[in-house]
Amino acid sequence: MLARTMRVVVALAAVAMLSGCGVHVEFSPDGKKLLVSDGNGPIMIANADGSQPRHLPGTRGASSAIWGPDGHYILYEAAQDGHEDWKVFLYDLRTKSARAFPGCLSAPYTFSDDGRQVVAWDKGKACLVWLDVPSGERLLEVPCPTAPTDVRLHWLSDRYGVAFMGRKEKEGTDVYTVEAGKVYRISTTGDVVGLGVSPDGKQLLWARQAGFDANATVTAFAYDLDARTVQKLPLQVRVRDLVRVRLPRNAALFTAAEFSPDGKSIVLQVTCYRMREKFVVEETSCQGAFVLPLSGGRVTKIFASARPGVLDETISQTAWSPRAERVALVTSWKKKVGNREEEVWRVRVMRPEGTEQRIIDL
User: Fold this and answer.
1) Is residue 254 part of a domain?
2) For residue range 180-206, what is the model confidence (pLDDT) as tens digits?
3) What is the C-alpha separation between 354 and 34, in angstroms, rounded?
4) Does residue 274 register a pLDDT over 80?
5) What is the CATH number of the domain that holds 140?
6) Could you tell me if residue 111 is inside a domain?
7) How confident is the model at residue 81 (pLDDT cuts 50, 70, 90)?
8) Less crowded by CB within 10 Å, the N or C end of the chain?
9) Close Cβ partners of 66 (under 8 Å, ≥ 6 residues apart)
10) Element (H, E) at 321
């Protein structure tokens, strides 16, 4: 009973973290620029060091913005003026104009490697939709047993498909693929906290978290899409050994992993919640972000809360640059303005070693 209830509590936190709530950031395909969207103001593009920020006209209210593979297009979701239904928009940076794909679509989504197709989620039909970029025509609809939980789907080049994490009630979060119009459930453990794809597109990579208490452990796996076999990777770490603070009584540990594009490392985001009776989250006790090699080598701490129990700044998202040369952390904190609190956002950009850090206040 305890394990099942704790799984539900932590899963709710995972959904909030992975659903694109708040600010979302991505590096451009060449790694030189950042794309920032927050669901309120217009999309912002800036150099990776935060210099020369500019806003894209006509994108107010855009959220979960992602780059196209050639850097000419941006995909984002937004509610149309006067309507509650959400749409997915394709923004052309050359013409500075956007057009909506037909139907009520939303994140998660992705581009094909050649940029000629988009795959997006149709919540009303509970299916993934393949769309032709030039015409907007629906090419394929694939019903899915579960909704994807991340902002971006993972394109599988050789399989006319995508990979994603999906959550089922009472079963937890697992890895799924759609290949040539067919859905496959790849994992069945219900404890997946991060998904990636190898650079050659031949392997799926995922991280699991076993348990939520002080003995919670994170491990990583590789799945061969051709042989349909899974292999455990050397990475295995006990979460409390990363945070290195005295955990509060009734602690619940939650992690989220972001795989590097070169398939060699993850950024592991760790949050410790203190629970009270009936398994309600009382407060967030501590938080940190760590770069861990999948080979099981040296761990690098790149962010930590100022001190246990005091979270002046919290992480909501992590992102890698395409060549894994930089890591971006989206963080926020509460600022008191008169009698009310206002959430303030920033992006921290740094090397995976935690050096050369630049802070971009939004």
Assistant:
1) no
2) 999 999 999 999 999 999 999 999 999
3) 18
4) no
5) 2.130.10.10
6) yes
7) low
8) N
9) 26, 35, 74, 75, 76, 109, 110, 111, 151, 152
10) none
